[in-house]
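This section describes the prediction task in plain terms. A model, or a person checking by hand, is given the sequence of a single protein chain and must write out its three-dimensional structure as a string of tokens. No templates, partner chains or ligands are provided. The sample shown here is typical of the held-out split.
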Amino acid sequence: MRQVLFTFVLFIPLLPANATEWQSVPDSDFTFEVTIEGVSTTGRFGKYDVRFNFDPDHPDASELRVSVDLRAADLGDPDMNSVLFDPAWFDVERFPVAVFRCEEITSTAPGNFVARGTLELKGGTRTVEVPLTWSSDGTEARMRGRFALRRTDFDVGSGEWSSDEYIGLDVTLAFDLNMTEADSR
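The expected answer:
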């Protein structure tokens, strides 16, 4: 019996003692920036959910999951939004949500991290690295970051839109997220 118990204890995952589950709150900002006919244009994602099971002492044992409702993307113009939702762009009828899953987080400096994971967007999956900063005070925290993607890597802007003649190929995503402990909401 003692050996069975000992063997069982060996298979219990060792979770970091300081891990906390964090969740984004509505008063945050998640934007995307693209060049349209030579003019930098910023849009916003209006609906997203960010969950971060994080231990600052052991970031390598942390997990980050981001879900973005693409139907709530807003370029500030109803005509541009309707095109954004078309099959050539986000194709929200078939792919309404983009998801980033990360189980590999490394510290680059105090409060600075890189989250490496997979981004699922418009039916495609690619590995991406997201640099971010993190600060917390009690039950509140802030996560910020900025990184670029090539839209054509995910077939966003396909067909006649696959060149950079009118719409730039690089899209910058930026986030400034207020977070709270998941169980304190």
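For orientation: The radius of gyration is 19 Å.
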